[in-house]
Amino acid sequence: MELLLAKSKAGHDKNHIYVVVGEEKDVFFLANGTTKKCQSPKKKKKIHVQPIKHLASELTELASGKELDDDLVAEILNLYNRRD
Length: 84
What we know:
Blueprint: E1 5-8, E2 17-23, E3 27-31, E4 42-45, E5 49-52, H1 57-63, H2 70-81
Antiparallel strand pairs: 1-2, 1-5, 2-3, 3-4
């Protein structure tokens, strides 16, 4: 699965950034590496999140060819938040 980040548009976690670790028909499974782990991801409807499609090359290189785990997810989100 290609690296995909998503921003929550609704709920108590509004404006939080997550890594998408799974997908079904109308829901994403989201993880942040700390409170929401890859083994027990947050289930959120696709209409309540905004996918982030344009990612810096450092992020895609960091995740390429690797299995997503909590440490990698946390590292990706830290790098994304420090991009500016």
